[in-house]
Design brief:
two-stranded antiparallel sheet, mainly alpha, 139 residues, Arc Repressor Mutant, subunit A, single chain, 2 strands
Amino acid sequence: MNIGLLLFIPNRALENRVLAAVNAAGFDVTQAQARVLMRVDPEGTRLTVLAEAAQVTKQTAGFLVDQLEKAGFVERVPDPSDGRARLVRVTEKAKGAVPVANAELARIEAEWEQHIGKRRMSQLREALEMLGEITDPYR
């Protein structure tokens, strides 16, 4: 199996479990919406930046932000650096989902560590952080 697939399968399982936990806690959000929502900077992010970061078209990002706004997860506010532009910013409702997601992530990491061992989990994290140095354009 190639390395891309070996990285993708556990990531997909992690995403699915975190989304299930967030939805079970009453935060009704889809995977596509969550992928955009996770990329909103605390100070706000322009739609074009969100689209690029989520690797979707500007139209798709706009559609997803419209849904998130309607559900109360984000708001559009004026960009202080350019009065004509708008920023997408997370709301308190969205911030409320963060502890739920973080708790599920902690459970997953603990399960993975139990399965592969503390040393291997530490090595895995270190290797992935090093790969992030050369693969993450948003670092």
